[in-house]
Amino acid sequence: MKERLIAKGSKPLMGIFLLTVLLCMTFISASASPIDASVFNANEISVVQTDIKILDGAWTAGSTEEAFAAVESLTDHEVHLCILQKEETGCYTVVSMSSGILSLDDYNSNPHQLLDHLNDGHPYFDITTDEQWLYIEVTKNEEEWFISSFLVEDSASGDRVTCDCNLDTQSAWVYAIAYPRINWPFLKEEMMLDHFDIASFTSRCERALSYLEEWKGKEHYLQVLEIEW
Question: How far apart, in Å, do the first and last CA atoms of the chain sit?
Answer without folding.
Answer: 101
